[in-house]
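Job type: complex structure
Entries:
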Amino acid sequence: KQEVTQIPAALSVPEGENLVLNCSFTDSAIYNLQWFRQDPGKGLTSLLLIQSSQREQTSGRLNASLDKSSGRSTLYIAASQPGDSATYLCAVKEYGNKLVFGAGTILRVKS
Amino acid sequence: SAVISQKPSRDICQRGTSLTIQCQVDSQVTMMFWYRQQPGQSLTLIATANQGSEATYESGFVIDKFPISRPNLTFSTLTVSNMSPEDSSIYLCSVEFFTGTGQETQYFGPGTRLLVL
């Protein structure tokens, strides 16, 4: 059974810091890995999607990497801003369309 | 991309009653997914709803408790039946779309916050 773990569970940083969120998964037979952002009352927003054959994806200040063999992914946020404050969720897609989520990292960026 | 709306956005219900949550998508989709997020926990897939066929339920979820309808390619409902306080959660509807780069990306509705007293 696939299990997804995210570390840390919560993170508080001053504005401007670069930070790394970690995600690990137990079964490397994944179709892709997706990072989401969850804001209260607004559901989930997809940030980055990495196919199983890819190593990383970048979007603006966000960079996500994937090491499928070791079952790890990182989300790097450069020059953090207060607007980045949210819960960040990692999810792996198994063959068969099922998404398995981690518990998330609650990020607070202080101004 | 897809725009997904859910109704109601939140509700407070008495135990033993049932609540039906609606999900509307602005484009036609083959599969719609229903997730539950219990307080402080991750999202868990309840079932996958295909238009024209019975929903497929994940382990631990049954049709009698969470009946699902999928009358067309843009709409689905999830009913939480005979509710208990343990059903207090956020319920989210989701669909998959291919982006402009050909990648399958999952989109989520805003969620329905349910509190059962």
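Summary: The mean pLDDT of chain B is 92. Chain B touches chain A through 26 residues (CB under 8 Å).
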